[in-house]
């Protein structure tokens, strides 16, 4: 099942510098991206690459050259590097931001995600812990740490972090989506559907919560609502192999084996290693 990660966040600062920096960076819009895989490319697959373009990086570098002692400039450029998959460059910028401002909790949280992408989960956890220590109300750090816990099988710890973010009145859809995944894994599909629905209300253009909600509808034998959600997920992201495979499963349950085979085939083309699609295609091929 897919999990959502918001890649990186710029700092928040009420100054004239902030306006100039954000204008140069073009990074005000926060992208939603990701899947449960620890593959960094997958986690950032839907991010607007314009935010990490060479031109944008050059603009950010010019801002840093003019403000070499300002930690926020490094944090924003680090965010842009991270969105572009340049994780080591991103880490260097977050290192510098934290060196300049050891209380910069957003930079710790951003660096934590980069540490995860670099395969250092212990360092990622340490950075999330430090961000929370510096700001106990920072919802993004709880969500990031919760996803790290969930991906490493620490389900109860993950649930507690998502719950904490929601108690803080977060408007971040990841908290609800990822808590919904935990409910779903525990067979609590009514609660999962409620969380996926909240995530959809906060981010209606994201395919993953529709797909997640469809799975829970399917588990409750509500094939019509499941089918509607899978179709919406595919419409929003036609490259979501899981969405095509789930749509195929509904076709198969309806006895429409030819349509099921076509959808399974689409899933296999997108991800030849996705076993539910491979197995489904084998069952329905030649129908």
Automatic annotation (TrEMBL):
The keyword Cytoplasm does not apply. TPR repeats lie at residues 71-104, 139-172, 173-206, 207-240, 241-274. Coiled coil: none annotated. SMART domains: TPR. Keywords: Repeat, TPR repeat. It comes from the Bacteria. PROSITE patterns: PROKAR_LIPOPROTEIN, TPR, TPR_REGION. InterPro entries: TPR-like_helical_dom_sf, TPR_2, TPR_rpt, Ycf3. Pfam families: TPR_1, TPR_11, TPR_2, TPR_8. This is Tetratricopeptide repeat protein. It comes from Oryzicola mucosus.
